[in-house]
């Protein structure tokens, strides 16, 4: 990893239009920036989707990337944040072999230490779920792997909200609606 690069989280709000994800990821491809994680979901606003994207880059490049994304016709707004400016989490599931897991008393201690939860148990496998920071999710995986009980591992992309008291897109949409109403009158 280049020492002058920072992990940025980009939050994009767009209309719910087919093909917009491809347009957004093309901005990264053209600049040869690897997307570390990507999460897409409906937002709290009807008809608006939220994209949470992470990548390692420099301050000048991230500014250009977000500017290019905002130029896309169906994008409402895009902003970038450092880890200090957001509250973020990931979700992970660990499928572990039940016999090996139960035979090792250290396994349940590891689960408790990471505040993870067992959400399914059957004679063949158990599912452990964890919500947390990326590094903790990776650390739990490494510890369970050392106990020789991991069958499968999956994690979500990052989800994030800004630490600001308001969501910028709500303010933007309210202002846009007000301008539209004024033009109509």
Fold topology:
Layout: E1 6-15, H1 20-30, E2 35-42, E3 48-57, H2 59-70, E4 75-81, E5 86-97, H3 98-103, H4 105-113, E6 117-121, E7 125-132, H5 134-146, E8 150-155, E9 159-162, H6 168-184
Observed structural traits:
185 residues, alpha+beta, Alpha-Beta Plaits, 2 domains, five-stranded antiparallel beta sheet, four-stranded antiparallel beta sheet, branched-chain amino acid biosynthesis, Acetalactate_synth_ssu, acetolactate synthase regulator activity, transferase
Describe this structure in words.
It catalyses: 2 pyruvate + H(+) = (2S)-2-acetolactate + CO2. Catalyzes the conversion of 2 pyruvate molecules into acetolactate in the first common step of the biosynthetic pathway of the branched-amino acids such as leucine, isoleucine, and valine. It is a single chain. This protein folds into 2 domains: 6-81, Alpha-Beta Plaits (2-Layer Sandwich), CATH 3.30.70.260; 87-158, Alpha-Beta Plaits, CATH 3.30.70.1150. The chain has 6 helices and 9 strands, in the order βαββαββααββαββα. The chain has helices spanning 20-30, 59-70, 98-103, 105-113, 134-146, 168-184; strands at residues 6-15, 35-42, 48-57, 75-81, 86-97, 117-121, 125-132, 150-155, 159-162. The strands form 2 sheets. Strands 5, 6, 7, 8 and 9 form a 5-stranded antiparallel beta sheet that branches. It has a 4-stranded antiparallel beta sheet with strand order 2-3-1-4, sandwiched between helices. A hairpin with a 3-residue loop joins strand 6 and strand 7. The longest helix has 17 residues, at 168-184.
